[in-house]
Each structure stands twice: as C-alpha cells, then as structure tokens.
Design goal:
about 180 residues; Alpha-Beta Plaits; five-stranded antiparallel beta sheet; alpha+beta; 6 helices
C-alpha cells in the first residue's frame, strides 16, 4: 500500500474518531465475518460503531483525534469501538457481546485522555450511564420538595376528610329523620 493511500486512510480514520472522547479497543481474532457483522448490527442499534483498523494507522489517527496512548493497546488484530451516549454504554454493550461471542476480547480503552486496562474498562460496565446518573440526581433534588409539599397538603386533606364525613353524617341523619316521621 502506498504512503499516499495510507495517509488518506489515516485521515479518514482520524475524522471518524474526531468527535469521540473515548474509545474501546477489542481483539476479534478468530471471529468470522458473519459474526463480526452480527456484532456490528447489534452495536449499530445502540448508535455504537465498530471499526476494524490497521494498528499503525489507527495509532496515528487516534493520536490526531486527541486520544493519546492507544499505541499500547494496538497489538495484534484490533477493532476500535466508539460512539453511543457515553463510554459506559459502549462498554456495557461490548461486555454483553463478549458473553455471546467468547473470542471477542476487550483489550482496554481510552477515556477522556486516560488509558485504561482490561479490568478498569470492564469496571465501567458496572457504573451507571449518563441517563441513570441524571435521573438519580433529579430524584435527589426533587425528593425533599416533594416530601415538603406532601406535608403541607396533609393537614388540608385531613380537614377536608373530616368535613366530608360530617356532611355525609348530616345527610344520613336528614334522610333518616323524614322517613321516621
């Protein structure tokens, strides 16, 4: 392959990785193209991309995209996985795929400039994703206000219940009195 072609491929890879703040590197040695396409299809549904790469070109492209340190992960047969809502979503989906396809192995990741090994990358799968964290924070922020509102309304509900009971009692007494006469 000529140097010009290599530079074009590297530039294309760099443009793909440009928007990603995190990537996961996986080893797909021994996986057939059919299975690879099935994995890609499953990832695509979650807006996650899997790109099979040549190591030297991928290292240059990742460095150019601001994801430094990938060279340490890029040995052997590799694919770079990126996209999704967050790196946690990407890792969760890759871990799910490794359960289905035993030959697929996580090698590590680069998360916001930090190089993570296999164990650290797999630990990301146990963390809550961005939406779960936002929901948790939202619940914690609105919880006290919801409780306070319930306590403010409670006495009014009690009074309304008592008034309703008195009215119903008077109506029963009023309806029962003419029938007795």
């Amino acid at each position: 392959m000529s140097k010009r072609v290599k530079n074009l491929i590297t530039a294309e890879l760099q443009s793909k990785f440009k928007g990603a703040d995190s990537v996961v590197v996986v080893d797909y040695t021994g996986i057939s193209s059919t299975v690879t396409n099935q994995i890609r299809g499953a990832l695509r549904q979650k807006k996650i991309k899997l790109t099979v790469v040549r190591n030297a070109m991928a290292a240059k492209a990742l460095e150019g995209a601001g994801l430094k340190g990938a060279g340490k992960l890029l040995t052997g047969t590799n694919a770079v996985v990126y996209g999704g809502e967050s790196v946690v979503d990407v890792v969760k989906e890759i871990v799910e795929q490794t359960k289905k396809v035993e030959k697929l192995k996580i090698k590590g990741s680069i998360v916001e400039g930090q190089l993570l090994d296999v164990k650290q990358t797999q630990a990301l799968a146990k963390m809550p994703n961005k939406k779960e964290v936002q929901a948790n924070i939202s619940g914690q922020l609105t919880g006290p206000a919801r409780k306070l509102a319930g306590q403010i309304v409670a006495p009014g509900r009690k009074i309304a219940g008592i008034v309703k009971a008195v009215i119903e009692k008077k109506e029963k007494e009023g309806a029962a009195a003419p029938a007795a006469a």
